[in-house]
Amino acid sequence: MSETLTFLGLESSCDDTAAAVVRHRPGHAPEILASVVAGQEELHAAFGGVVPEIAARAHAEKLDICVEQALARADLRLSEIDGIAVTAGPGLIGGVLAGVLCAKGLAAGAGLPLVGVNHLAGHALTPRLTDSVAFPYLMLLVSGGHCQFLLVTGAQEFRRLGGTIDDAPGEAFDKAARLLGLPQPGGPSVEREARGGDARRFALPRPLLDRPGCDLSFSGLKTALLRERDKLVEAQGGLTRQDRADLCAGFQAAITEVLAEKSRRALAEYMSLDPAEPVFAVAGGVAANKAIRSELETVSRDIGARFLAPPLALCTDNAAMIAWAGIERYRQGGRDDMSLAARPRWPLDTRSPALLGSGRKGAKA
Ligand code: KG4
Ligand code: ZN
Question: Ligand 1 within 6 A of 310 CB?
Fold first, then answer.
């Protein structure tokens, strides 16, 4: 298929309502003509986490507005679009359903093809949208909802080398911040505090480093942090600024070390495929952490792979990645009809054992 394709993408699987228009002319780099993201942070702030019912209602209210804005910014009418791509899972089911219903309405109304996209495939294919990276490449998704190593060997071929067996790292950062009375989202708060801290003062665990493979675990780390905090509170009646900084530094160092070592293992497996142009890409909000990012970059360089971190706006949830994944799937003949179902769980790699647990932001996969 060599035609130019312009796709409208919709995303509503968690707490961001998004619409985007992406155009791809074969032989050229894809172009993001518009990308609109409406967050819901203020709606959930009082509850300390995403409330699925509130999220679903907000998506249903905002999707049309986001679509209108995206089309206006791209200066296109719906009739000039070639297809509609929509996140059909995994995620919070009410939100996914709102997106799928909206996409079906648009596709039926305008007589356009409908392509259901796996949200994780959207993240995983982003390096091709931003940097036209060739297969196979290694991807680490690290966000508030996801944590997995993916070997991307084709637009619809993913092998999961490992993932978290409990919390995602962003979720762990958020919980740590809450334990220490720091503002949400926790990642940036913990990173800020950690700057003035001594990472060696507290002996926090490095979960699963003693076991082979690329699986990760972060919930024990949070419990260890809680224990250290409680010991200090008991001994001195509260936390000093320095205590807080040291706890943050220790926590961040533990997460960094675990991610670095597991990345080393995943990279070794990837490099055994002898890729012509080795690439290690990261996506997800946690990739914004400077300490983590620079450690991953070092690991990647040491092993001879190019390190790639897409711009943050395309690392976190957005609809440009969904439009792009839709184009990739469509070019391989992927089509859906009005029977397209919204799926709360949808692992990218069905051969790997299922990831357990349902995170704060919906199912892990
Ligand atoms: O990719 P993202 O926006 O998507 C969701 O999971 O929805 O990631 C958000 C997560 C939050 O948990 C946040 O605390 C974390 O990414 N995060 C960070 C940093 N910035 C955001 N974690 C560590 N360090 C940061 N600088
Ligand atoms: Zn996501």
Answer: no
- Measured CA to CA in angstroms, residue 18 lies from 87, 91, 178, 257, 350 at distances of 10, 14, 28, 33, 27
Write the pLDDT tens digit of every residue in 279-323. Answer: 999 998 899 899 999 999 999 999 999 999 999 899 889 999 999
Would you state the pLDDT for residue 363?
A: 55
pLDDT for res 360: 53
| Architecture per CATH, 5-132+317-363 | 2-Layer Sandwich (3.30)
Q: Which of 302, 313, 312 is nearest to 278 (CA)?
A: 302
Which ligand is closest to the CA of 142, given by its number? Answer: 1
Cβ–ligand 1 distance for 285 under 6 Å, the answer yes
Q: Is the CB of 143 under 6 A from ligand 1?
A: yes
Q: Where are the beta strands (DSSP E) in the chain?
A: 5-11, 16-24, 31-39, 83-89, 114-118, 137-142, 147-154, 157-163, 279-283, 306-308, 358-359, 362-363
Domain boundaries, the chain: 5-132+317-363, 137-313
* DSSP at 272: T
Structure tokens at 149: 């190593």
Q: Say what the pLDDT of residue 55 is.
A: 81
User: Is-same-fold flag (5-132+317-363; 137-313)?
Assistant: yes
For the cut 70, the answer to whether the pLDDT of residue 49 exceeds it is yes
Per-residue pLDDT, averaged over 258-279, amounts to 97
Superfamily the domain 137-313 falls into: ATPase, nucleotide binding domain (3.30.420.40)
